[in-house]
């Protein structure tokens, strides 16, 4: 505890780091405030009643899929008809599209290799594509909050303007697009002037904002069941901490591939080709190199089985795919995650390029020839570690369904026991802590260099 307190003092004593943290907190405050501003044509109080009515009708089971994910990413703004309802997700979607298109379009491949100028151009393309995604998602979102609730005559007062008129649609679309672009701008400001990872931090804040409410609901339900409620809450918290620990292990687990470097001067002399240790002595291959992307892709596809129920509503097996806590949904969900883990890892980890870079820089894997054999070796190792990583990831994704009902009573709190929300929270927090630690170490290193310079020069 003393070391932790000392670390906080060190952070606060560094003006530049302190300013970055305060700036980040200020941007987060603005983002959370904007998420509570409803669309001008929507009565926010009535929308809350609409959503509660829909939840009581059983709509929350299907909504806990991709729609639930979008709602958690926006901190509930998606569910409350906020001006920030689309949040940062259009930017995430645009980034994924650009990344996938980069595998097939030579122009984008060239930009990825052009250094800083290429990255700036890719960022500009992503921004414009974000607006295009918003123009598609905004009408879909407005359709969901109008057509879904219009049949309930008692809730017609939720709209200040006729929901089928141009006076409702045009301003609402413009505001939703502007809200998403504003969220993207806030994220970039955190990246530029804050502690970095701005987009990820905004997503994490949106997810964390729903945790207190979910926990309070779980306490209320457990206490209502009798004297064992407090004990069950304690057990749930301890189990949740264990799940978080396992999520941290999954996020940081790597397979280290040893690397040795040949001294070019000795190699040219031809007398002694001794191997010398370079600055990097190993290549870290992550066990879960795909991150949370397989879960996101799988959740997007899980709407398809649910749509099949419209052709045969009496089929109880197909009806199970509409409930994210059913065994049918989660078995297929886990299989899709394993498949997408291998797919996404294959397209994002360039083993051939890694082998070429090693060969160009005089590096080699012991007992493996440079070039193609090194690429094949790295690919083989990556395939072997991806399988357990994918299985572990799929278990995390379906864990909310496992604990729901028999262990955790509420839907909202069960979703924090795994899946995308937990992995994103853990990953972003680990990255943020690492950046702060790196900044502290760099500052300490500069201080040591300056003291040593003053002792040797007398200045």
From TrEMBL:
PROSITE patterns: SECY_1 (PS00755), SECY_2 (PS00756)
InterPro entries: SecY (IPR026593), SecY/SEC61-alpha (IPR002208), SecY_CS (IPR030659), SecY_dom_sf (IPR023201)
Classification via SUPFAM superfamilies: Preprotein translocase SecY subunit
UniProt topology in membrane: Multi-pass membrane protein
Domain of life: Bacteria
Principal location class: membrane
Gene Ontology terms: cellular component: plasma membrane
Biological processes, Gene Ontology terms: intracellular protein transmembrane transport; protein targeting; protein transport by the Sec complex
Annotated TM spans: 21-42, 88-108, 128-150, 166-187, 194-211, 231-254, 287-307, 327-351, 385-407, 413-433
Signal peptide: none
UniProt cross-references to Gene3D superfamilies, sorted A to Z: SecY subunit domain
Keyword vocabulary terms for this entry: Cell membrane, Membrane, Protein transport, Translocation, Transmembrane, Transmembrane helix, Transport
Location in the cell: Cell membrane; Membrane
Protein's UniProt keywords contain GTP-binding: no
One matching Pfam family: SecY
Family: Belongs to the SecY/SEC61-alpha family.
HAMAP family cross-referenced by the UniProt entry: SecY
Subunit structure: Component of the Sec protein translocase complex. Heterotrimer consisting of SecY, SecE and SecG subunits. The heterotrimers can form oligomers, although 1 heterotrimer is thought to be able to translocate proteins. Interacts with the ribosome. Interacts with SecDF, and other proteins may be involved. Interacts with SecA.
Function: The central subunit of the protein translocation channel SecYEG. Consists of two halves formed by TMs 1-5 and 6-10. These two domains form a lateral gate at the front which open onto the bilayer between TMs 2 and 7, and are clamped together by SecE at the back. The channel is closed by both a pore ring composed of hydrophobic SecY resides and a short helix (helix 2A) on the extracellular side of the membrane which forms a plug. The plug probably moves laterally to allow the channel to open. The ring and the pore may move independently.
The protein, known as: Protein translocase subunit SecY
Organism whose genome encodes this protein: Chryseobacterium gallinarum
């Amino acid at each position: 505890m003393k070391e932790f307190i000392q670390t906080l003092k060190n952070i606060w004593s560094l003006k530049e780091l302190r300013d970055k943290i305060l700036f980040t907190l200020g941007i987060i405050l603005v983002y959370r405030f904007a998420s509570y501003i409803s669309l001008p044509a929507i009565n926010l109080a009535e929308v809350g009643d609409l959503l509660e009515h829909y939840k009581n009708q059983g709509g929350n089971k299907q909504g806990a899929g991709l729609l639930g994910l979008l709602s958690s990413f926006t901190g509930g703004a998606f569910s409350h008809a906020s001006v920030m309802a689309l949040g940062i997700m259009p930017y995430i979607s645009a980034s994924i599209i650009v990344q996938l298109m980069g595998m097939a379009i030579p122009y984008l491949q060239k930009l990825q290799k052009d250094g800083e100028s290429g990255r700036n151009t890719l960022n500009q393309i992503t921004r414009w594509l974000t607006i295009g995604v918003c123009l598609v998602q905004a009408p879909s979102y407005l359709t969901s909050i109008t057509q879904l609730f219009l049949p309930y005559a008692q809730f017609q007062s939720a709209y200040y303007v006729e929901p089928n008129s141009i006076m409702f649609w045009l301003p609402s679309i413009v505001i939703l697009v502007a809200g998403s672009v504003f969220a993207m701008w806030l994220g970039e400001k955190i990246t530029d002037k804050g502690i970095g990872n701005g987009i990820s931090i905004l997503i994490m804040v949106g997810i964390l904002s729903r945790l207190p409410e979910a926990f309070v609901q779980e306490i209320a339900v457990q206490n209502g069941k009798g004297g064992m409620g407090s004990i069950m809450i304690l057990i749930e918290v301890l189990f949740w901490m264990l799940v978080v620990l396992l999520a941290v292990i999954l996020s940081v687990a790597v397979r280290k591939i040893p690397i040795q470097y040949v001294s070019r001067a000795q190699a040219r002399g031809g007398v002694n080709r001794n191997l010398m240790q370079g600055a990097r002595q190993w290549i870290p291959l992550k066990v879960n190199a795909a991150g949370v992307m397989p879960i996101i892709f799988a959740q997007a596809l899980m709407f398809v089985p649910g749509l099949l129920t419209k052709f045969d509503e009496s089929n109880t097996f197909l009806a199970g795919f509409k409930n994210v806590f059913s065994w049918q949904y989660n078995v297929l969900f886990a299989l899709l995650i394993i498949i997408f883990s291998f797919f996404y890892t294959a397209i994002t980890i360039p083993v051939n390029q890694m082998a070429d870079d090693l060969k160009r820089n005089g590096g080699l894997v012991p007992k493996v020839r440079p070039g193609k054999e090194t690429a094949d070796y790295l690919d083989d190792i990556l395939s072997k570690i991806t399988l357990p990583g994918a299985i572990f990831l799929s278990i995390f994704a379906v864990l909310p369904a496992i604990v729901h009902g028999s262990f955790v009573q509420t839907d909202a709190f069960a979703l924090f026991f795994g899946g995308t929300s937990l992995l994103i929270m853990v990953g972003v927090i680990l990255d943020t802590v690492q950046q702060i630690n790196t900044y502290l170490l760099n500052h300490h290193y500069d201080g040591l260099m300056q003291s040593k310079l003053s002792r040797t020069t007398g200045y």
